[in-house]
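Much of the work behind modern protein science is quiet bookkeeping, done one molecule at a time. The fold becomes a row of whole numbers, each drawn from a learned catalogue of backbone shapes. The protein below has been through that process, and both of its lines are reproduced in full.
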Amino acid sequence: MASGVGITDVATVSWTAGVEAAYASDGRSAFVTPPIDGWVLVAGVTLFGLAGSMKTDTVKLPDRIRRLSETLSTQVQYFATHRVSEAHQWVSADKGVLVRAFSIGDGEVEFDVGARTAAEKEVASSFKSDRVDEDWVLRLAGRWSVDPGKLDGRWLPRGLRGVFAPGP
């Protein structure tokens, strides 16, 4: 799985070491989990950079996720959130078909592709404001697949640490 998403220099590490690597200051490390409820999670600050500049390159992100889902012949979801810049993104593609893509940064919608899903509507209705934030994105991740914020306290096996090299 790691090579399928462009991760090289792979080593098996503990969950703690993998998460620490994903948030390393080098900005190139990634952590690939073993399957969790049928989903493999890939974490790393480099993944947020897949979108490139929030002002110029975000339209490339949905196509990258679509192509990855086509290459892997499966459903691929992407979630990113950055509290400081208030940038939040999510994309879902299934076997090469873009299902949904949304990105907002500093209150400005960068892209909004596809119809809002029932899960998005459900999450939106549970908040008192229309403002998207990190909790909003994590809650959506939980509705679509796995909420990584709820993995604390769970027995977490070893995963793979490596270097993420996003494609063009």
